[in-house]
Amino acid sequence: MLGLVVVFVLCVAAALAPWLVPYDPAAQLDLASGQYLDPSVAHPFGTDFYSRDLFSRVLYGARISLTVAFLSVLLSVTIGTAVGLIAGLAGGAVDMVLMRLVDAALAVPRLLLLIVVLALWEGIGLWGLILILGLTSWIDASRIVRGEILSLKTRDFVTAARATGIGARRLAWSHLLPNLAAPIIVTATLGIGQIILTEAALSYLGIGVKPPMPSWGSMIAEGQQALSNAPWVATFPGLAIVVTVVAFSLLGDGLRDALDPRSR
Amino acid sequence: MLRFITVRLAHAAAIVFLVATLTFFLLHLAPGDPFTTFSETTLISPEVVEQQRRNFGLDQPLYVQYARYLGNLVQGDLGYSFREHRPAAAAIASRIPATLTLAAAALVIAFGLGILMGAVQAARPGSRTDDALSVAALGLYSMPVFWLGVMFLMLFGVKLGWLPVGGIVDEAIYSYLSPLRRLANRLEHLVLPAMTLGLVGAAVVARYQRAELLDVVHQDFMRTARAKGLSRTAVFVRHGLRNALLPIVTLFGLFFPLLLSGAVLVETVFAWPGMGKLAVDAINGRDYFVVTGIAIVAAAMVVLGNLIADLLYRVVDPRTRGES
To answer: What is the model's pTM?
Structure first.
């Protein structure tokens, strides 16, 4: 429940960020005397090196992190479901080849691969980032969907549907996918948290979401330059990440319990 | 057993080959090459830059470069580091000890602390301690590892000044220290990075350990042991913990990708001169072969880690030996 509430508040805040923020997140308010101001009523999270309001930036960061995460997860879950569905339904050689590829993909240190791709295609932009995050994180979803398919295949209602003579496509769309909705939604919810962590790491390294776009990861990197005189610059964006990821975790676990009573 | 190892080694080699191919093409399809930065500065004439490209074979068709790269690879030659002016293998090898030191220290913390946390939780499930530790594990698990590092740096390095803020030794004074002081200096520098990487790992281990222990506690042999008159603690430690440790061994294999990815970030936070930091620097400097080399070495470490975990599992759990 707590997860749902926090996720809801975060999404609303991110969507309404342009109307909620007290300042323009990119505005350098007062370079002469407004650098690294302590948190106060006027600036709840203080200001950074460029005298920008940190609260506005953290809120806009939520907007960007959540957008990137939602779209990447949408892509990764779509690919993962397709791969898992094909592997599980086709079986035999197709299944073996696909699962071997999945094994191979698991051996690649993912962060390293992402760094290679993102550092080399520098001008790739936000859409490119979303695409690459989605393309590299469908493994979990494919394994879960394949497992579910293998167990569904042995169930009587699937045998019955098959006996009526329907094709594989019809079977997948009208009998298998509706039963997969619950595990897919849970996987997607938990995946959002993981993508947010990955995006933050990439932005911290300077190759994810790039300045001047506010991102939690790059804010932490900027804050690391001022740990002695302005510790809040690195602290608040990190707290925002923890709260968001914990909330999606709790929501995912909650959804699992609600949608699949067996796992309780 | 021998057959099992042979098959697994063949799989491992195939995976490493796939990774090598993937990284090679990723690097070469990307815009720019190691000499792009040179040709952008006007100090070096375009002819010299072209000559350098020819010297390193970068003007050859891609398939020729790929064939040569694979040929060199099987001989253990990972190519040349343009930034360090020495073989990429040497550049990478010089950084491996630092990463292994960090990873080993983090593993000890992750498993030591994680098993302890899980055991304390499972001893009294549902208690206040159990809940508190669960929340702590969830928090750590949801925390960006680099941010935890930055927070440690701020607290113990900057505010309290107890520990150094980065590097592997104090370069300025290290060579003047006595052997014992040198060791102390190294350990001092290791504490924060190892804690950062280890704590996140401990959260993962604790979750598994708690679940496994709770599973074991309800087994028949536990009740039998109690019925024999053994104390609760003796049963829990000698029969419960021992059996629950089995699945933890498989976690060991899963940990390698986590450690390597974490090392990239933690090494960057603490300026730790390991493979992860080298990877980030090499990519920014377009040091082609160092990047492919690190990807290959990292993939090899991951598959090797999985292999070791599987072997360990077969050693500690005789029931799995029949399968291959």
So the answer is: 0.87
